[in-house]
Amino acid sequence: MRLKYLIRNILLLLLIISNVSCDQISKQIARNKLTDHQEVNIIPNHFILTKVENSGAFLSLGTHFPMMIRFTFLTILPCLVLIFGLYYLIKNQHLSWPSATGIAFAVGGGIGNLYDRIRYGSVTDFMYFHYSFIKTGVFNMADVSVMVGRFLILLSRKSYPSIPYEIKK
């Protein structure tokens, strides 16, 4: 039984490392190959690469906050959440695979963006998608990991709802 949990945890840690690696490699390529705000049409008018350094959170939220507030909400708080997420993932061996995979994706994406924020003082975003009424902000692979993670967690809640229990008297 212990071997099963060890293998499970190793696979989940490899998934986290893979997410962080994919994010960091893609950001490094964007930093090296794109200049700030340069636009490269991959699918003309639909999928564009453009490098933006984001010192705020999602869609630059908080960019103009005082440094101490930004540091607290964009570095310290996410670090605590990621530590809790990793702890929760390792300790809760009963999680369904979709839930565990979703948490691993979200933690991996969070680590990727947190690493950027600590190392560079901002997060490198470089992808933009626009099709019909669907428009995104500029994002990166860590953001994709977080969104895939959220989707898997929501999917697992639909597929595996918690079973209510009765209190026996």
From TrEMBL:
<comment type="pathway">
    <text>Protein modification; lipoprotein biosynthesis (signal peptide cleavage).</text>
</comment>
<protein>
    <recommendedName>
        <fullName>Lipoprotein signal peptidase</fullName>
        <ecNumber>3.4.23.36</ecNumber>
    </recommendedName>
</protein>
<comment type="function">
    <text>This protein specifically catalyzes the removal of signal peptides from prolipoproteins.</text>
</comment>
<feature type="active site">
    <location>
        <position position="143"/>
    </location>
</feature>
<keyword id="KW-0812">Transmembrane</keyword>
<dbReference type="Pfam" id="PF01252">
    <property type="entry name" value="Peptidase_A8"/>
</dbReference>
<feature type="active site">
    <location>
        <position position="125"/>
    </location>
</feature>
<comment type="similarity">
    <text>Belongs to the peptidase A8 family.</text>
</comment>
<keyword id="KW-1133">Transmembrane helix</keyword>
<keyword id="KW-0064">Aspartyl protease</keyword>
<keyword id="KW-1003">Cell membrane</keyword>
<feature type="transmembrane region" description="Helical">
    <location>
        <begin position="127"/>
        <end position="153"/>
    </location>
</feature>
<feature type="transmembrane region" description="Helical">
    <location>
        <begin position="68"/>
        <end position="90"/>
    </location>
</feature>
<keyword id="KW-0645">Protease</keyword>
<keyword id="KW-0378">Hydrolase</keyword>
<dbReference type="InterPro" id="IPR001872">
    <property type="entry name" value="Peptidase_A8"/>
</dbReference>
<keyword id="KW-0472">Membrane</keyword>
<feature type="transmembrane region" description="Helical">
    <location>
        <begin position="97"/>
        <end position="115"/>
    </location>
</feature>
